[in-house]
Every structure is written in C-alpha cells, then in structure tokens.
Amino acid sequence: MQRQGALLLVGAGGIIGAATRYLISNALLGISGTLMVNVLGAFMLAVATTTLQTSRAQLFVMTGILSSFTTYSTFAAQTVAASPLIGILNIGSNYLLGITAAICGLLVGRRLA
Amino acid sequence: MQRQGALLLVGAGGIIGAATRYLISNALLGISGTLMVNVLGAFMLAVATTTLQTSRAQLFVMTGILSSFTTYSTFAAQTVAASPLIGILNIGSNYLLGITAAICGLLVGRRLA
C-alpha cells in the first residue's frame, strides 16, 4: 500500500480513537478515566494483534483507532501532577492492569483466531 | 462549548497525532519507535499543560494531537510480545524517561507561561 493510503487509514482511525477516549474520559474524570481507556485499549489491541490479518485492517484498527484511544502522555502528566502517593499508585495500577489486560487479550485473541 | 464542537476539535487533532506517530514509528521500528513518541509526547503535553489557556486549544492540541500521538496499548502489546528481559527494560525505560520528560516539560512550560 502507498504511504498516502496508509496515512489516510491511520488518520481516519485516529478520529474515532481520540473522540471515543474523550467521551469516556469525560464520563470518568481524571486519572481513573485514563486508566480505564489504557487498560481497555491494551486488551483490545492484543486481541486485534492475533485476529486482524490484512495490513489495511491493522493500520485502521490498531495503529489508528486503538493506539489513539489509549494515551501515554496524559498518564505521565496526570502522574506528575498528582500527590506522590496517588502518583505511585497510578504507575503501579497502569502497569499491573495494563500488562495483565494485554496478556488476557492475547489469550482471548488466540482462541478467536 | 457544545459537545459536538469539542468532538470535532479532538477528532481533528487525532488525525494529526495518529498520522505523525505512524510516520515516526515507521522510521524507528518497534519498541524504540513507541518509546520515542511516548517520551516526546509526555514532554510536549506537560509543556502544553502550563502554556495553553483556552479550552479550544487544550482540546485540539492536548486531548486531540498529543494524546493520540502517544500510545499505551502499543507499548503494552510490544512489552508482552518481547522477551522477558527486553519487556522489563521497556517498562523501566518508558516509566523512567516518560515521567522525567513530563517533569522537564512542566519546568520548561512554567518558564514559557
């Protein structure tokens, strides 16, 4: 696929991922909203890794929607702005739940593939 | 601002953030590309936190561009897919460099504000 076509798929997915993250983050304010999208997105991306076959689907869903749905920069900024205790709890819960979600996603995806 | 207007700004930013992440990740393959966008995005979001004043600018640049530019789901999937040693190094470097970048971004932003 040409680079322009790939950019179009990634950009179109980016609209969906960013807008959905915004809606969920608005419903669950602050750190808990970011934790929710990151854990949910890590699970769904791991499922997609094992189930999506074509490069078009991978670019649109994985690089576009799901990578834009989750965010690292907001997590880092919220962690630094929080109190030390909340910051450490936020790092621990993002890592523990996020990596666990990715492992569960791989297991579920392998069953579905 | 109405929710539709906010979604439009976030979605438009999402196109830019996702497409730029894709281009950088293509240049720096795999784990190192994700580390690069996450650290760079964490720094820029922290600068934006202290310098952007209007909610329109915050929605477009922070929630749209910079949150979509970084990704947590790809980081989690790459960590799980890597060897245990590389996975642990990836978690450590993302956290150490990402949080340091966010602190540096806040310091730079406060000087610029």
TrEMBL record, chains A, B:
Superkingdom of this protein's organism: Archaea
Does this entry carry the keyword Ion transport?
yes
Q: Which UniProt keywords apply?
A: Cell membrane, Ion channel, Ion transport, Membrane, Transmembrane, Transmembrane helix, Transport
Q: Where are the transmembrane segments?
A: 27-47, 59-80, 86-108
Note the InterPro entries from the entry. Answer: FluC (IPR003691)
Give the GO biological process terms.
cellular detoxification of fluoride
- Extract one GO molecular function annotation from the record: fluoride channel activity
Principal location listed in the UniProt entry: membrane
Q: Give the UniProt subcellular location, in the record's own words.
A: Cell membrane
What this protein catalyses is: fluoride(in) = fluoride(out)
Q: Does the keyword RNA-binding apply?
A: no
What this protein is reported to do is described as: Fluoride-specific ion channel. Important for reducing fluoride concentration in the cell, thus reducing its toxicity.
Q: From the Swiss-Prot or TrEMBL record, give the protein name.
A: Fluoride-specific ion channel FluC
